[in-house]
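Format notes (please read before filing issues)

Several people have asked whether sequences and structure tokens are stored in separate files. They are not. Every record keeps both together, in the order shown below: the sequence lines, then the token lines. Line labels are part of the format and must not be stripped during preprocessing.
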Amino acid sequence: MKIVPARGFTLIELMVSLALIALFSTLALPLQELTVKRGQEAELRTALRQIREALDAYKQAADDGHIVIQQGDSGYPKTLALLVTGVKDAKSPTAAPLHFLRRIPRDPFADPRLKPEETWGQRSYLSEYDQPRPGDDVYDVYSLSPDTGINGIPYRQW
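Then the structure lines:
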């Protein structure tokens, strides 16, 4: 009679395999977190660029006379919502609306329960660069996140 060796893995082989899987997963987790943060930072850069370009386009339209501004106004929109809802073109015979954004992008680091326009800090034209504060208009936006980017610069300063 011939003895056939048992097939399968020994307990030691299973334990070593499990230990290797655990080691690889603990190495991959920080890399995955870094990848997620990079994606959020790219989204933040894109959102800031879109809003800032829309603010500049609004100001240019005001300077060109397409938007009626009152004496003493800076020419920047009163709210971020005006970039989406639009304003009447003063030079158009039909008073067609001028729109500068399809929607307000949200800050990816903000609370998801907030409305997109509430996720941004707003700086008025008359406020200082290093101490931004809201005012009669929206000259610039910044992230309200207290976190720091991968590059070491706080998101508020981007």
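For reference, the curators noted about this record: The longest strand covers residues 120-123. The two ends are 79 Å apart (CA to CA).
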